[in-house]
Amino acid sequence: MTGTASLTTYQQHHLRPTYQHHAPYLFGPMVRASQAHVVMLVEQGLIPAERGARLLRGLRDLARAGSDLPPYDGSVEDVYFLVEKRLAEVCGIPTAQLDVQLARSRNDLDAGVFRMVLRGQVLGVLDRVLEAARTTLTQADRYADVVITGYTHRRPAQPTTIGHALAGYAEALAGEAVHYADLLDELNRSPLGACAFAGTDLEISPSRVADLLGFAGLVTNSYEAVAGADHLVRVATLNAQALATGARLARTLMDWLSWNWVATPEEFTQGSSIMPQKRNPVVLEHLVSMAGATAADAASVLNNVGAAWWEDSNNATTDVQVRLWESCDRAERFFALLGGFLDRLVPLTPPSGEEIVRSGATTTAAADALSRHGVPFRAAHSVVGVLVRSGTPDTWTVEQVQAAARTVGLAEPLAETAAADLITAAAQPERVRERRQADGPGTAAVRAQVGTLRKVVEAAAARAAGLRARLDAAERALDEAVDGWIGR
Fold this sequence. Notes:
This protein is mainly alpha-helical. It has helices at 9-43, 49-65, 79-91, 106-142, 162-187, 206-212, 222-227, 230-258, 282-306, 318-343, 353-359, 363-371, 377-390, 398-407, 416-427, 443-486; strands spanning 147-152, 155-161, 189-190, 217-218, 270-271, 279-280. A hairpin with a 2-residue loop joins strand 1 and strand 2 (155-161). Helix 14 (398-407) crosses helix 15. It has 16 helices and six strands. The protein has three domains: 4-102, Fumarase C, Chain B, domain 1, CATH 1.10.275; 107-352 and 444-478, Fumarase C, Chain A, domain 2; 363-427.
């Protein structure tokens, strides 16, 4: 068949679009998995060496040809059969003489190749998460003494620092890096050898194929190997979770830019079509939208998996792949953008001490100051409540504080020193930099947090490097095995 007009309705509206989506992702890994499979078949004595060498020569030619694939013309059902067709052509034999699918099914091949593709993509996402985490930690350390107003429920709450807020997001990134590393461990188990789902009577060596493809081990159960989809759900949901958290930071950064607390990074802005003075940081809006699209992809994956039978089913495998590939691509771009934005972030005009005081954000510290003088917290809180209703903290006097204490019914008159300490705490938001609490906004505390989180980030980076080393070694070993059998 050639040309769109000769395609059936099913081919036009399902097989061809699926081929167009899947072929660029799957053809190369399918060829690579086939090389490992044929090496194993020859080593196990399941096909003669000369037939194996012919197949390996053909597969090497396909690998070298790359992914310049023909358009869908209806002559094959999908990428799986395209590999067979092209392999037969380069080997100069009919497809009936191929051994490449001996002791293998499209089921386990798809499951294995999907893991290989996702393994590479998730490694790419993890790289970007690690870069963003390192950048965020650097900025947290750099701006650990820049005092700002912290908000809860979109209202001024307490003084904190830029460094404290960024170290908090860095902790989220560090946790996400660990989760991605864990996910890679789960993905890096081979289903190859499960065949349709029940294995084979032939004496194959699935562990040899796994080693040649860089897998760290096998899926324990052959039914799970082709029916299981938890690892696919985890890819989708972890991306959605990580981007949702990053989108929340993007929303907060929009406020910081609007209030001129930080400068707008020039390279991350777009101009207005009509207002020449405007530089719009729309990248932050795009980040929020990207998080929403990733959540939608996760919902699609969950819905498809939940609609599938507990067996090999396109709902839970092939039909979710595009959503996963786009999710991973988007996640990688998301963290590249957010990390790049944070790298260019510098303070502009953070809120002054007077502004923070007038916002009421220091009142909790004022109540705490009274508590240090033995006043019960609820009473101290009530005293500050009376004072807040009388005016902003920069207007309070010792006499007002003492009068407020009488109003709330303190058992003992409030000493001048206690009243003075309350006023000092309310008037000096910069004192938050001296706070010694290990997880708090004190400058030294934030820098210690940065040091702790760097260790978590670098441990995750070491795991990623270890996987890359395994994949590189497997790549070399497979090439050597292929060349060895071809050269005999």
